[in-house]
Fold this protein.
Amino acid sequence: MSKSRFFYIAIVSVTTIINVFAVLCILFPFLAQQVQNLSPLVYVYMYLDHLQFTTFACSVLLALPIIYVLSRRFRPHKAQLIVIGIQLVLLTSLVVIVYFNLDYLNEIMLRPTYE
């Protein structure tokens, strides 16, 4: 494996995992009510006890197929640079969304409505 190929796979892996982690940080609070309705014990285990572990484990598991496709599909150097650029723009926008909505997302997650 060439040095540039290794660096491409490393950069794509890290940025993909972080992107999926940011998406899950945005989505998990909105799923809190459905999980609470499904099973209160799962809600307590997932959201109150092990939220960081659950989010990180899900982000790694969901990112693996994406990493595989991105590492196999885009061979030319120009395509690799485009993929990295798109991922960095996506990462920047997701981090801004998470940063501005962090208090709102935590409130939704910790206080599900009982309708």
In short: The mean pLDDT is 81. The CA atoms of residues 15 and 97 lie 16 Å apart. The helical segments are 3-38, 40-49, 51-73, 77-110. DSSP finds four helices and no strands in the chain.
